[in-house]
Amino acid sequence: MSETYNGHDHPHEETRTGAESALYASRIRAIEALLVERGILTKEEVRRQIEYMEARSPANGAKLVARAWTDPEFKARLLSDTKAAARELGIDASGPVEFLTVENTPEVHNLIVCTLCSCYPRAILGRPPDWYKSFAYRSRAVSEPRAVMREFGLELPMDVTVAVHDSSADVRYMVLPMRPPGAEGMDEEELARLVTRNSLIGVSVPLEPGLAG
Amino acid sequence: MTARFDPGDPVRIRTEDRRGHIRTPGYVKGKTGRIETLLGTFKNPESLAYGGSGLPEKHLYKVAFRQKDLWDGYAGSLDDTLYIDIYEHWLDPA
């Protein structure tokens, strides 16, 4: 399936619900049936790709972040070659698209969006949340990122620069958030539990110890 | 194939109103930013989307814009920045 995939893992429609989504689901099933009938894809390839996608989750991103917080050399590798760093932790991010990890610092906070569709580091984090694909997020994350983050509960002071990354082409982005205060002395596994999916997109920051379940 | 632009170069995004699978969103068209980094070369998505070979590959650049230059009445810091990945054939020197 990768031949026809080209990293273009994005639907070009807004997130839809109800009857409309049923319409799109039937259309996709019809297209799949045709592709199989014409011998372009096999059912097995479709099944394998679904399994690959379902096996990804934000837990992968949390593992990468927790390792980066505890191992400065790993952090340097994560920032310089995200694919290779992911491979070190057994996360297969091979494929035609590139990955970049952007680091939050006391001076700069990063936020990820794809205004054109829903480009997302799926090979590492799995499928994006529905709101990430919504027209509202895609348009507002670029034009009023601070208001969007405020709605997610993150109020950034004006002396922190907001860097928005519109992943419109062949690179997928993940945020390396800052280690929260009070997380000293925690091991990698405990740290990983503080790293939420939203903090990997940049709409919020990791949980503070005591708040994580 | 050498890259036409270097980090720091000011660039303007072309304003072509082209239909199809273009990867340049409207809100940056006609706007001036600067090259942040070169991201490498990739098959041209405008060709791949229609069954083409995507060749020749195109240089892809991360372009930085000041948010204040993109949006009237932007609510934020003067330093707030938008980064977006743009293929070379959408860039003119500014």
TrEMBL record, chain B:
The source's superkingdom equals Bacteria
Check the record and name the InterPro entries matching this protein: CN_hydtase_beta_dom_C, Elect_transpt_acc-like_dom_sf
Q: Which SUPFAM superfamilies match?
A: Electron transport accessory proteins (SSF50090)
What Gene3D superfamilies does UniProt report for this protein, alphabetically? 2.30.30.50
Nitrile hydratase beta subunit domain location, by residue?
Answer: 2-92
Q: What is this protein called?
A: Nitrile hydratase beta subunit
